[in-house]
Amino acid sequence: MRRLLPRGLRTRLVVAFLLVSALSALTAAALTFHQARAAILDRARDSAVHQLRAQVNSLAPDLPYAPAETDLRTLALQLDRAGGSREGWRTAATYRDGAPVSAAGPAPALPASLRHAASSAHTAVVQRFHHAGKPWLALALPVTREGHPSEPSGLIVYASFSLTEEQGDVATLLSAARAGALPVVLLSVVPALLAARRVLRPVRQLRSAAENMTAGALDTRIRVTGDDELADLGRTFNTMAATLQADAATLRAMESRARRFAADVSHELRTPLAAMTAVTGVLNEDAGSGRLAPETAEALELVADETNKLGRMVEDLMEISRFDAGAAALDLDEIDIGELVGKTLGLRHWQDRVGVNVPQGLRARLDPRRIDVVLANLIGNALRHGGPSVPVDVQARTEDDRLVLTVTDGGPGIPQDTLPHVFDRFTKGDAARTRSEGSGLGLAIAAENARLHGGTLTAANAPGGGAVFTLTLPQEPA
């Protein structure tokens, strides 16, 4: 369904301004028209009443005390002649309850309500009506006795005439009012555009400032003038921007210190760990030769395992630190994907536990060391969480000039609450196992290596059960 109202705020303001202007112009034109129309009709009425009254006052004294029909006809004839240029001017006269008598022919058209009102009135009665589809005005003037203004004589004089000329004047006035309203509305477009521009200038500044802040320019501020609501909004925006800039600077400083701390700790731990690994290696040889007591050999094996885990964690921390510092670089080479997967499995003695489905001759340009790290993390996780008896499959294919590698296991899958955070640092697939072989950084490092190649790494659960990790890489890295 299409929206009836315009979408843009500027358009809405202009339309609203034009509507107000049009309503004001039409209201003013309507009021002017009604007042002018009333004035025209009142002038016609007053002029006719004054003219009829003057003629009656000059002719009535010559009438007999009880005028006959011929006297009434003569009076009507004289009044008809006094009508001048009025269109359709006709008069009639009645005495007591007699019928109206006109000069010639039938009496003029008179509303019954006018005659009824005139029978009990002491002054002129006026009524507008329509006759033959045209507007008319009818007058009834009761005549009083000479010298006794409050005593009716029984004589009532009637007159009616067409208001066609006045109607033409009213129509002309209406056309002029309509024609005058249109230019007013058209001319109001200019002040409407100027007003909309003035009102929307702060809004455009706010939008531009918000876009700059979205792009990272947190030092953006807008110039505020005035004391209206938009000015208050601008001051609020500047306060918000200053707060965000301060908070962002604090967070960046804290993040930088945390990264530096992790990198420094990892670097400092490498030397003692190397010495510990060398010592535990020598002691392991002694334990293997039987020169150490069984309890000592078991404790030594435990220390060696934990030392190796700590060494792997330190290496993972160093790798994450390089990604954070932007120091990670690609060493691209054209390699065979099948050979790369085979070497990854062979180095870790996984070839008997993992199924491989890679087309022969499938090649891509990538960093073999980093993709080996990605595959090792994905396959290692699948083997650990899927169980020793659960098959793990590695597949490769091309889709729309992109290399797609998938690692699938038949295990229980990834919990739904863990799935959105599976690539977060220090997130482990099984939160119940507080001690595991992983550091919680393997999948995070794998995702960073995928991004470094311009690709993506996603995780999902297969419909039939098990986890599916999909590595998508461009054939030519971005």
TrEMBL record:
Cleaved signal peptide residues: 1-38
Compartments where found: Cell membrane
Gene Ontology molecular function: any one: kinase activity
Keywords linked to the UniProt accession: Kinase, Membrane, Phosphoprotein, Signal, Transferase, Transmembrane, Transmembrane helix, Two-component regulatory system
Pfam families the UniProt entry points to: HAMP, HATPase_c, HisKA
Gene3D superfamilies reported in the protein's UniProt record: 1.10.287.130, 6.10.340.10, Histidine kinase-like ATPase, C-terminal domain (3.30.565.10)
Catalytic activity: ATP + protein L-histidine = ADP + protein N-phospho-L-histidine
Chain ranges of the Histidine kinase domain: 264-477
Keyword Kinase: yes
E.C. code: 2.7.13.3
Cited PANTHER family: SENSOR HISTIDINE KINASE TRCS (PTHR45436:SF5), SENSOR HISTIDINE KINASE YKOH (PTHR45436)
Record protein name field: histidine kinase
